[in-house]
Specification:
The protein is α+β, with helices and mostly antiparallel strands and 81 residues long. It has helices at residues 16-26, 38-46, 71-80; strands at residues 4-9, 29-34, 54-58, 64-68.
Length: 81
């Protein structure tokens, strides 16, 4: 079951606003990470994030249960869990 998420974005990413807006409307608890900052880049490396936007979904135990890079992929993961 989906518990929360991390969303990696940058200020210059043209696709990030749509994904960020969608995730804000899901009602899921989540953290938005600016991958263009040193701290955000470290966090992105920790999760092997190679592109933005990337959403990483976690279960109630903190285990990664999916990664998505666009709204269609997000919906697919959310419908499976």
């Amino acid at each position: 079951m989906l518990k929360n998420f991390l969303l990696f974005t940058t200020k210059t990413c043209p696709k990030c606003p749509e994904v960020k807006r969608f995730m804000e409307e899901t009602g899921l608890e989540g953290v938005f990470v600016d991958a263009s900052t040193p701290e955000g880049l470290d966090e992105a490396r920790k999760y092997s994030v190679a592109q933005v936007p990337t959403v990483i979904f976690f279960d109630e135990n903190g285990k990664t249960i999916g990664k998505a890079n666009n709204v269609d992929e997000i919906k697919e993961i959310m419908n499976k869990t």
